[in-house]
Write a structure and sequence with these properties.
The protein is α+β, with helices and mostly antiparallel strands. Strand 28 and strand 29 form a beta hairpin. The longest helix has 25 residues. The relative contact order is 0.10.
């Protein structure tokens, strides 16, 4: 059996073999004795630290690795350690991803407790209540001169009243302006000709006078009265007429011209205009009428009474402004013409007018669904043919006929 140290020497890499002379004789023959402890220690000290460790392990037959298992980490190079740590990091990330994918997404349940707060009822703003009645007061101030059978329109801070009939029951070409706060009135202009029984509306910041009558002549013209009270021709109606009623749309962008007469027969046309120059027929009334009262509420145009062959009628007609359909509602308590209809406090009211028994001083509130009219207030005098002016939160009835041409001014407000 050979020398075990020599066999071990042969198995070692050439770069790490100790000098052969330390384990062999002069002639290269193996020595029969082990190297001295000093000589073996010196050869290991001359090696690098890692080589010394490897040599010691090999000389001990691997038993030292099993006895000190933690030395494997200190024996690794820095690069190997980094690779190992990176591998461990990747493994941890993968495990976390697998756990997240297989776990529940629901959050952990939270303990619930019985609420001791009493349930609250949702509150909403109460809808505005429509006015149930009105109060009409005759003001101490009077119009500069009596006027009737014309209209008024608000431009800026002034009410403009063009033409009409005077105290002599004759038509006039003068233009009155009335301050609706102080009730002071004055003549501010003159029209190209005398005219009454037309309608007056506000469109585009201007007052527009449409149609009318002078003597026995009816007009198909419309005239614009500017803020400076200058009068210029605007357009033409489909045919000459007088005795119409007019109401502005809910947004004030358009005006509706209702009924009237051509001098022989009452008319059933409902016309629409947005500029006072061009007019388009949008509906036909079930009952033609002249001198009716009218008002717009939402998308409905209401037409009250009027005349046929100089006799008042009690018809109430509603025009749907979205479909242009016309329906008849419950009739008025009495036949009525030359009355004034207005919207105040969200409700429709009709004041004064002519009946088959003379003039009326009653003010009616009208149900917009059924058309039923209920008397709710009275004027101080019987009145018809008044000039109607609607201002914010109140209505004015100016002039009219109360047995004679009048210069009275009535102020009407919602409520008792």
């Amino acid at each position: 059996m050979g020398d075990p140290e020599l066999e071990e020497w042969k198995r070692m890499p050439s770069a790490r073999r100790p000098s052969r002379s330390r384990i062999s004789g002069r002639g290269g023959a193996p020595r029969s004795v082990r190297p001295t402890a000093g000589s073996g220690l010196r050869s290991q000290l001359n090696q690098p630290r890692s080589d010394r460790y490897s040599s010691a392990q090999r000389f001990s037959g691997g038993h030292q690795r099993s006895r000190s298992g933690g030395q494997f980490w200190t024996s690794w190079s820095r690069t190997r350690k980094l690779r190992f740590l990176r591998f461990i990091g990747i493994l941890v990330v993968l495990l976390l991803l697998v756990w997240q994918c297989t776990g529940s997404d629901d959050p952990p349940p939270t303990p619930t407790t019985q609420s001791t707060t009493p349930p609250t009822t949702p509150t909403t703003e109460p809808a505005p209540v429509a006015a149930q009645t009105v109060t009409a007061t005759e003001t101490p101030q009077k119009l500069l001169k009596p006027r009737y059978e014309t209209g008024a329109a608000l431009v800026g801070s002034q009410l403009v009243i063009p033409g009409g009939l005077t105290e002599e029951r004759k038509s006039t070409d003068s233009i009155l302006a009335l301050d609706p706060t102080t009730f002071v009135s004055e003549i501010v202009g003159t029209m190209p000709g005398k005219r009454y029984d037309g309608v007056v509306v506000t469109l585009g910041g201007n007052v527009v006078l449409i149609g009318g009558l002078a003597g026995t002549t009816r007009f198909d013209e419309s005239w614009v009265i500017g803020p400076d009270y200058k009068v210029t021709p605007s357009g033409k109606l489909p045919s000459p007429r007088s005795g119409m009623s007019a109401s502005a749309s809910a947004d004030g962008a358009s005006a509706y011209i209702i009924g009237g007469t051509d001098g022989t027969n009452p008319l059933a046309e409902v016309l629409s205009t947005s500029d006072g120059a061009t007019f388009t027929q949008i509906a036909t009334l079930a009952q033609p009428t002249e001198h009716p009262a009218s008002v717009v509420l939402g998308t409905s145009l209401f037409v009250f009474g009027g005349e046929q062959a100089n006799v008042p009628i009690a018809a109430v007609q509603r025009v749907d402004l979205t479909t242009n359909a016309v329906v008849e509602l419950a009739p008025l308590p009495v036949p009525l013409s030359h009355a004034s209809a207005f919207l105040l406090g969200g409700s429709i009211f009709i004041a004064g007018g002519r009946t088959t028994n003379g003039r009326s001083q009653d003010i009616y509130r009208v149900d917009p669904i059924t058309g039923a009219a209920t008397p709710v207030a009275t004027l101080s005098k019987k009145l018809s043919d008044a000039v109607l002016a609607v201002t914010p939160n109140r209505v004015l009835l100016i002039g009219g006929l109360d047995g004679a041409p009048s210069s009275a001014i009535y102020e009407i407000v919602a409520g008792p």
